[in-house]
Amino acid sequence: MKHFTLATLGLALSLIIITPVALSHGSTEPEHGGVVQIEHELAFELVRHADSISLYIKDHGEAYNTDSLTGSVMVLAAGKKQEAELKPAGGNQMQAPISIPDDAKALVKVKSGDHHPVLVRYSF
């Protein structure tokens, strides 16, 4: 009986350790120095530059081609709202000519063809 209990405990612990890896949809670690959010099984990394932003998209850890995507970004900062169009920039990258200051909130909307848009929220 003691061996059965130990074996069951060992199996349970191994499943607890393995489960997060099996359920993940790619890494949430930023590859470009930005902030990563997961929505609809896609990883969106938003990178702030001085006068623009870059958005990198991955699907289960693989680069997601953005050539057919459209999108926009809305920034709320200091009581003001700014909006800009996101455009494909090659590979899995999209760019918009907008800056996001500290303490701002950003709402990114990405759409593919006739599919409903994916909304991703960020706070800085």
Structure description:
The protein is of the alpha+beta class. It has one domain: Immunoglobulin-like (Sandwich). About 20% of the residues lie in helices and about 45% in strands. It contains one helix and nine strands, in the order αβββββββββ. It has one helix spanning about 1-25; strands spanning about 35-40, 40-50, 55-60, 60-65, 70-75, 80-90, 95, 105-110, 120-124. Strands 1, 2, 3, 4, 5, 6, 7, 8 and 9 form a nine-stranded antiparallel beta sheet that branches. A hairpin with a 2-residue loop joins strand 3 and strand 4 (about 60-65). The protein is globular. The N and C termini lie far apart (about 55 Å). The model is unreliable at about 20-25 (pLDDT under 50).
Keywords:
124 residues; Immunoglobulin-like; nine-stranded antiparallel sheet; 9 strands; signal
Short description:
This protein is of the alpha+beta class. The chain contains 1 helix and 9 strands; from the N terminus they run αβββββββββ. A hairpin with a 5-residue loop joins β8 and β9.
